[in-house]
Design brief:
With about 180 residues, the protein is an alpha+beta fold. The protein has 2 helices and 4 strands. The protein has a 4-stranded antiparallel sheet, covered by helices on one side. The termini are far apart.
């Protein structure tokens, strides 16, 4: 088939070609801009990901270090609780003495005055020196030098050749130990 192309038709085809080329350039520019934006965004995201990975690794190392410190501290705490429990048991053992094994030290304004076989004998002796026979109570927090008469129970430990107080303070282990 033979087709005859006229100048008008040729001019119209040339105009359509120019329009198509202009549209192609426009679309190509938009594609290039989108591709450039995509590449820039990819680089930015990659950089942020690398920073986040470095921070995560640093955090993991810090967590490992803190875990080791926590384990060491827990071990030290367990040792301290064990030691405190042993001390509390020893203190309790020292505080528990047979009632017939202790004597009484009579203090006059904090100074040793006399030793007696028991508290009743010390109270009776203090009464001969003008102290009331009744009204004796447990020692309070006042210093011994501020109290006229005070009776202190004690034990003589012949093995160690020393005296030991019967009234040791009750100490409870801290932190639930014991």
């Amino acid at each position: 088939m033979i087709r005859i192309v006229t100048r008008t038709h040729l001019a119209q085809l040339a105009a359509e070609l120019d329009t198509a080329r202009a549209r192609t350039r426009e679309v190509q520019e938009q594609a290039d801009a989108a591709d450039g934006a995509h590449i820039r965004e990819t680089f930015a995201l990659t950089a942020r990901a690398e920073v986040a990975e470095k921070k995560a690794e640093t955090t993991r190392q810090e967590v490992r270090s803190l875990q080791i410190t926590l384990e060491d501290t827990a071990a030290e705490l367990a040792e301290a609780r064990t030691e405190l429990t042993g001390m509390a048991k020893r203190l309790e053992e020292l505080s528990q003495t047979p009632t017939d094994a202790f004597m009484a030290l009579l203090l006059f304004y904090g100074q040793p005055h006399s030793i007696h076989p028991d508290q009743q004998a010390a109270y009776a002796y203090a009464a001969t020196l003008g102290a009331p026979l009744s009204g004796w109570g447990p020692a309070d927090e006042r210093p011994a030098t501020e109290v006229r008469w005070r009776c202190v129970p004690f034990i003589y430990d012949a093995d160690g050749d020393h005296f030991r107080s019967v009234t040791a303070p009750a100490i409870e282990p801290s932190g639930g130990a014991g």
